[in-house]
Amino acid sequence: WAYYRQAAAGQWELLQARRPVVEVLADPALDPGLRRSLETAQALRAFASTELALPENDSYRNYADVQRSYVVKTVFAAPELALSPRRWCFLIVGCLSYRGYFDAEAAQRLADELRAGGDDVYVADISAYSTLGWFADPLLNTFIRWPTGRLAELMFHELAHQRLYLADDTAFNEAFATVVGHLGAERWLAQRSTAREQEEYAADYHRRQAFLQIVTTSRDSLAVVYASDQPDAEKR
After folding, report:
1. Residue 66, C-beta contacts closer than 8 angstroms, at least 6 positions apart
2. What pLDDT digit, counting tens, does each position of 7-26 carry?
3. Is the pLDDT of residue 133 over 90?
4. Tell me: the pLDDT tens digits for 96-121?
5. What is the pLDDT of residues 149-174, one digit of tens each?
6. Which of 90, 102, 103, 186 minimizes the C-alpha distance to 132?
7. Is the dihedral of CA 79, 175, 208, 44 positive or negative?
8. Which residue intervals of 53-103 are DSSP H helices?
9. H helices of the chain, where?
10. Phi, psi of 81 (to 5 degrees)
């Protein structure tokens, strides 16, 4: 229950930090860059519902500054010499291939414990997440200043989780939201952006795809090694 306590406390703190975007924009002393980003985000929010059939609710109509560069720490782990991630099961959302924490120290303790048991572990700084419509997810300082294409992709991705989410199927949920995010961002840019913004987003997307291909190739190579009859020392 300690995990749920830190999750509830972190979510409550985040919700308490929210301010309506219209209120933030009404501040004449607001940083001009943040103002432009918030205005863009509100246009993206409207586009998400009118053009992409994503939920029409209060998500991304508020803004919160969490005073750090990430909103949660997420722990990913797999047993040594294996490629299937460990899964953790939770109330409401079912089983996931990761474990997220508002409490950074708790995340590190779990990572240390898993490493001590021999797991390969990665602790990621996460910029955004979806509460699947249970709460009105706010815009956050952790991503609000991203380039327009990436901001659009992220917002559409997280709203897609609210539209369709299958318990116990992380791979499908992330694949679905990723496709909605990317195609939605391309549609937005084609209708509302400059040629330069479209080119920058395309270049960024291709870099990310190239990186994923490197990871996929490496994973396939490791799968062959891990499935072989070699002794563990040689596999390592």
Report:
1. 14, 17, 140, 141, 142
2. 999 999 999 999 999 999 99
3. no
4. 899 999 999 999 999 999 999 999 99
5. 999 999 999 999 999 999 888 889 99
6. 90
7. negative
8. none
9. 2-16, 21-25, 32-52, 104-116, 148-163, 170-192, 195-226, 232-235
10. 60, 35
CA distances from 230 to 76, 120, 224, 225 (A): 26, 19, 11, 8
Looking at residue 169, the DSSP 8-state letter turns out to be -
Pick from 139, 73, 155, 83: which is nearest to 109 by CA? 73
Question: Closest by alpha carbon to 162, among 46, 21, 49, 67?
Answer: 49
Convert the pLDDT of each residue in 201-221 to its tens digit.
999 999 999 999 999 999 999
Please, are residues 200 and 207 in contact by the beta-carbon 8 Å criterion?
no
List C-alpha distances in Å: 157 to 129, 163, 175.
9, 10, 10
Six-digit token string for 200: 């920058």
Supply the pLDDT for residue 91. 80
pTM to 2 decimals? Answer: 0.89
Closest to 175 in 3D by CA, of 190, 164, 189: 164
Provide mean pLDDT across the span 17-44: 97
211 CB burial (10 A radius; 0-12, 13-18, 19+): exposed
| Residue with the two structure tokens 């709203």 | 159
Of the chain, the percentage scoring pLDDT greater than 90 comes to 92
Cα→Cα distances 110→105, 107, 123, Å: 9, 5, 10
